[in-house]
Amino acid sequence: MISKLSSSEVLHFLIIVSVMLLLARLLGELCRQLKQPAIIGEVMAGIILGPSLLGGIFPNLFNEIFVSEPKAYGAYDGLANIGIMLLMFIAGFEIDLKQIRAQGKQAFSISMMGLLFPFAVGFAAAYFFYDHIFAQPSTNLVISAMFFGTALSITALSVITKILIDMNILQSKIGGLVLTAAMVDDFFGWILFSIILKLMGSGKEDASFLSIIFVLVFVVFMLTIGRWGINKLLSLAQQHLKTGRIVTLCVILCLVGAIVTEYLGVRGVFGAFLVGIAIGDSEYFSARHRLALHQFVVNVLAPLFFASIGLRLNFIEHFDLKVVLIILGIACFAKLGGAWLGSRMSGMTNNESWAVAFGMNARGSQEVVLGLIALQAGIIDEPLFVGLVVMTIVTIGASGPLMRFFILKQEVAVAKAKLPAELPLT
Question: Of 172, 185, 363, 423, which residue is 20 to 30 A from 154 by alpha carbon distance?
């Protein structure tokens, strides 16, 4: 017999959603007023309401809200994951495929250098700093090094998307280039992720290398036949369905895409993003449809996901400044260096390269997921896991302002270069 949430569990679910959404939106708007990405406030909301602060100061209240009814929090976690999938979906349909084709070579150069260089630096650093950051003994140093290299190299596509949306530069040249490079980076990052899962001996079938081949086939399908089929389907829907029903149809297609890639072992957000690209390319998906989805997802569902990050562990109890500084220093040096080098190799100016590099430096939930699995496998301990999460938050916070700084610097440089030609001759 299928069980359902009891009245008490439903009550706790509603309390969790209400409290998390309220504080996430308040802090998110505060960050916007301070010219910071809203995602910083949304993550901080989770830390405030999580075991780090609320759980430490008022443990009984924290347990009553988040722990006493596990099924209620499980339902919240499911809702938060739907939110991040829909966020990637709307990011997908805002992508200009023509612009991507024009920037494809640049994006590939940036993503590959932004992946391989950090992986190499992280792999080497794991040997050099092993006694300082890997307190737990490992039976295989190579696995620890591969884990650290992977954790430093992967980029958070979902986080970058939110930052670009908050900065209103998603459809700009640099925004489109960063997002395209992040998509390539994220995909190959999940390939590395699956290899690490195999080596950790997690026993998960979704780590199968064969799944990567199927995902590649799905990518090609969605960008060719799938895109054509969705365009035809939306053409029929426009003739026979109202706006609300078309939006429903698009959300269903998004979830189907997420199901496919999740089943193949590469996160559902990737499938949602691909379906979003296919739908966004359709002439039958109007600005009214986009706005309807955008407002609800960005302002309601996405904050629930980003706030949930802070609920995962106690930051204060397991905080080790030395470990945090080592991880943060290596991570920023590796990712910024690789992305900047890739951008320069692709022909971008110095300011544009730094803007792209700081965009690619934003990390996200993928590091947290990989860290949790490594923690469970005994490869890392809690302070290292906290260091990875702190590095994630710091890089998120730094990406938006530093991207804006170098974008403005580039605009000033361009304006100065044009100025002499526009002055009248005397």
Answer: 172
